[in-house]
Fold these 4 entries.
Entry 1:
Amino acid sequence: MELPASNRMEKVINCFQKRPDAVARLICFPWAGGGSIHYARWGNVLNSSIEVFAVKLPGRESRAKEPFFLNMQQIVDEVVGVLLPVLKEKPFALFGHSFGAFTSFAVADALKKIHNLEPVHIFLSGASAPHSETRIKAPKRSELSDEDFLKWLMSIGGTPPELLSNPEVLKLFLPALKADLHVVENYRCEKPDVPLLSCPVTCFDGKEDVPHDLQAWKDITSGDFTTRMLDGSHFYLKDSGNEKVLLDYVTKHLETSEMDYL
């Protein structure tokens, strides 16, 4: 049985602050294994001109009993299916970190190709462009044994050590993380012959993270392209100082995007 639109929206989108009068929406995509709460609370922090929608994927939070998605197309179909009507109402931007950078790009790609709809800005974080050599040559983490996988997790930081040493918590956390990595590691994307998009793209990254090929993201747009490096490693954006820099930047660009949109 098909859920009514409002219920489908609630299933897939976490929105702490409904803001019908907002000038723009920020749609946020989780990192691998991540939930929606981290971004949903941005709705409480950002001013009233921006409404924040945080994407909730199956297999976690209120969707814990649903099977994980197996490929990028399933994520794109669900997110676009639920959001399309609201994205036509007012300017929107996309934000994604790591795995979320790929999902936000895949969603933007589908919106443009199929619905001729484009965000006013894409904010990408902590990831090489999907068509870059750096990403194509990256080791496949989702195929590691749990033991090696945990070693890798500890090495990138961002996951509290007490969580990694708790077998019960790990049983809940690891499957979602591996499922997301499986999706991203099997996501294929050719270098575009011509830019798909014309909106501005900004890439953020942690200075101490493994190097990502941010410049290759420039190939996706004919619009402005900017990179911003912040202190910290892969989860630099969990630092409150960095979060403030990030959100101030997003706010400034979304508030002025309204002018460009008209």
Entry 2:
Amino acid sequence: MFQLPTITRICRSFCTQANANLPISANFVNRNPRNLERMRIGYKPDGYHVEKPGRCFWHKLNLRKTGRYVYATIDHFENGTVVKASTSEWALKKQLYKCRDTSAYYNLGRVLAERCLKFGLIEIRCDIVPPKPDGRVAHFLQALQEGGVSLQEPPQFKPARPWDQFRFEKPWEVTE
């Protein structure tokens, strides 16, 4: 009449038998495509030397202002937009008095910093120069930094050649 307990018993016995026979591999393969960037040994494009802002970044911060809203995105050099936040989002817009005042910029920076940390981005490149030291853009950048995001990317690790005088510390070796 009621067959659920028998199905549960069968599933339990199958799962325990399957787990008991699985071998544990000694090798671990990390399939995260951005793992090499986190270790600073991934490819970082150089671009052309005549380009003004340059293209030497893994992740770059962009800030765009329209008539009503402010959009902030973080772009990867190959894959495009990775993280974005906007004052046009309903959850953020509902809490703001205006969508383009100083508090909107500050709160947009807080939201973007939180999303970056959830995504695993702690270092991004920022070419934005605030026009005023106490203006809206400065408050946006300040909120990003207070949220735990560094606005400078570390340089790409280049292996030392035999004739190099100085050998830099390898980023994957932690010395304490």
Entry 3:
Amino acid sequence: MPSALLVLVVLAVSPLVHGRHVRNTESNGISVLGEFNHEAFPRFAEPIPNVTVTVGRDALLACVVDNLRAFKVAWVRVDTQTILSIHHNVITQNPRISLSYNDHRSWFLHIRNVQEADRGWYMCQVNTDPMRSRQGYLQVVVPPSIVDRETSSDMVVLESTNVSLTCKATGYPEPYVMWRREDGEDIRYNGENVNVVDGEILFITKVSRLHMAVYLCIASNGVPPSISKRVQLKVQFPPMLSIPNQLEGAYIGQDVTLECRTEAFPTSINYWTTERGDMIISGDKYEAVSMDNGYKKYMMLKIRRVNKSDFGSYKCVAKNSLGETDGVIKLEEIPAPTTLRTTTQFPSSPTKKKGKTRAGDRFGRGGANNRVDSSSDFDDAGLPEYDYDGEYTLPSNGPPPIQEPPGAFSGAASSEKFNWCIGIVFAMTWIFSTSLR
């Protein structure tokens, strides 16, 4: 409720009401004094709703009064005891405040470009005796804002040291601040992997290269929009190296690839050397390739058409301002692979020729095709003859070993045994049937 001073000011510019009597002045200047019915007093048709508005927007407070008659309406700022308007007139000197009304019943207080200082209680008064009023609260909310001068910027630290990232934010209500990685990966924090760290300070003990990332400080308080700031954390460490295969094998004329993986920050200088220590330059013989992925590098050395002089040791080297490292890969010679191709064909209907080969040639070369025949083709000694003309890829140390076709020695004998067994069975059957007669 306002102080008595506010009431006196309002009453000073309004018709006076004493007890149950009222004096109204008609248009002709004649005063009328008589009994006043309290039920005919002005009354508020509805409460003044509380209003929430974002700073910088416009606010509207509404006061609805029924049966106002000749009484007057005033708007008052409660906390500062400031009269803003009386009836149709704006009293305050604040240029952002204006007044509108409708049908002598609805009275609207307008506040343009609302500031945080406008937050508070506002009263709508009617100058009855006793004075009648209603109050409404203007809530001014402020979206979050990050204070740059109190927030960490990009940082470069040495591995195994402690690091602290700070983020300060303002707003109303007070913002909630959290940290997370921009790439969405978990943060190694206090011995655990977490996705989000709450609070203004992100403190990491014994920082490692795994912490190297862009971090987002995010501030929110339910008033859109939320806001964030990027802070990049870089961790310095000397080069480290790993080799998937320390021993590689190749044969003469082959292309071979050597691989090496390194990690370093600042970014390292990577190169290959020969066994004698000569740096390898890409060209017709060698192709050196390096691919970056953050602080990691993949090194590859391709050696084309390996010859005797290429066998030996190769070294991959990585250097940066904090140190250097290297690794050795040994290239050894392996035998070249040999391919043995054998084409063996068999006739679909073998012809049995006893004592000589087909077409009078002891190697069976009488036909159009050079092939190894079936088990029925034997020479006089009973051994099969084979054709060596062009059906093999021959190694340098002589003809390939003779490969005997399946059943070469068993086909004829098995056939004769089978016929002999059949004869015995028929003979025994005939003898048995004769004895029964």
Entry 4:
Amino acid sequence: MRLKVLELLKQFEKLSFTTDVWSEPSANVSLLSLTAHGITNKYERISIILKCEQLEGRHTGEIIANNLHNILKDWNLSAESVHCILRDRGSNMIKAMNMAHFTDANCTIHQLQLCVRSAMESEEFLLPVIAKCKKIATHFNHSLIAQNELKHIQIERLNQSELSILQECSTRWNSTYYMMSRILKLKDSLVLYSGMHAIPILTADEWLDLKKCITVLMPFEEITKELSSATATIASVIPLIYTLKNTLETEKNKEDTSDNFNLMITKMIQDINVRFQDIQNNKLYTIATYLDPRYKLKFFTEITKEQVQSEILEILGCSKTSHDEGSSSPKIARNELATTSSSHQSHIQSCLAEILSISDEEEHNIDCADNVYNQFIVKKTLLTEYNREKRLSLNEDPLTWWRIHTKYHSLSNLLRQYLSPPAGSVPSEQLFSAAGLIYDPLRNRLSGDKAAKLLFVKYNLPLLSFDYKNYD
């Protein structure tokens, strides 16, 4: 398997990585993961678990940085082959990236979860509602008799399909969302059950607050699921964050939004603005968004449109001369986009699709520079032609588009580099979910080195296509 991985890594000039640290207190083991992400020359996305390195002692930034360098060295990868590393906002992780001189980015999903958690914990009017939901979930989680009686009420008395109460997990905000959604769905059953048993039950106003809270949190859940998919890339972050803020503004302006929820949504938007304030100036995001044919220049200001194309030309080895024309893409007014969600959109993809459908004709009015003959103009013309191409719909694969449009072959290395990063560190978190299964109560003395090998084998087996005989 190591030979196969080495063979695969040779075809990449640049790779993106996700990393995370996981600890199992009962076994006194800590693991540092490093997962490589790349796009092959056939425009196929690939992820490779390079290693789960056992961490000894304290998890300082210096130790993490040294371990990351050692893992790269084990796979004959240089620091120059690192396009970027996705990590959480832990101070030790941030320090490790600075010490190792890696280009890094925050996990978008983790950032969104922090926005939600901060909003829910700061709004006192919601705390009693959440507390009651937790007590209801605990009551049914601890009693099979209660579960069976609730199912009987759903089937026999309300003629509904049976559903179970979902329990909250303290480490995942979306589990709170799922718990609240399920309790709202089982409202009638729970009210009937509470008439026969002493359990906490929400008041009429609290049921309304619960329903509104779920509506406000729904876009966060949809974006989290969208960015957690295996095909999601960092290119979708700017469009989805813009759409999220647009959707929240629409929700805030609805007539049924109380002052409490108005304040809560305002805090959410402010928190999002703070956490993602530099995203429009970060070329990891802007170039990736531009190279995704579903988005291109749609979500950029006039200055950013000029900047991102200039950066691409510089990366391609073209010097920007004084003859360079101004930005060729028309400015999209902020208030024009702000009206795209004037009516409620329950699905975040619907909002995003609606925004992308605006001003297609304006984006085609792109002029080419005249009377300058050099490499800059050749590449600039290529980008102009790319700008004129009709944007893909959201359900189409951008890599398939690039594979078919061979006239843009000279941009191949660039897009393979900038579209390789996932939107978050989900691959590393999934790896550690499996680690939690390995360290069960009867196997908590397993060494970290052996656990790392088991994880390496488990997740990289598909790379061999399960054809073991060729790698004896």
